[in-house]
Amino acid sequence: MEAEYVLAREILKLANRITSRRNVDIRSLGLTAAQADSLVYLARRSGKTVSDLKDYLGVTHQTARGIAARMAEKGLITLSVSREDGRYKTISVTDEGRALFRKMEQNGTHLGDRLLRGMGTAERAQFLTLLSRALDNLDAL
Description:
The structure is a single chain. With 141 residues, this protein is mainly alpha-helical. The protein folds into two domains: 2-108, Winged helix-like DNA-binding domain superfamily/Winged helix DNA-binding domain (Arc Repressor Mutant, subunit A), CATH 1.10.10; 110-141. 67% of the residues lie in helices and 7% in strands. The protein is built from seven helices and two strands. It has helices at 2-26, 33-44, 50-57, 61-73, 95-106, 111-116, 121-139; strands at 77-81, 89-93. A hairpin with a 7-residue loop joins β1 and β2. α2 (33-44) packs across α5 (95-106).
């Protein structure tokens, strides 16, 4: 029990530090980490909905709607009623959003490199495998 608690706390600390560092790194772009993740996801995949964004980010529908609404206010995306199903909003990245996405690609924060520093290729693969398994375990609850 103690080891599992300590491990869970360390993972939570890691997640909080990653989010904090990412927010600092992208603050100059006027985005939060969630908005930056959303922009990358949406710029690489056309025709996605708020529901798709919710699933990708692993957040509630209400949170995804809020992120999308704030991004629309910033002129990065537009929201329109889906042609296939009127219950869904389709998201399109604007020209301004695409320009910001390209800027993000060119000026990456390299946080992943810092996080994985000192790990070899096999260790990185194992780390990803174990993290994925842990997430799958939680999704199975």
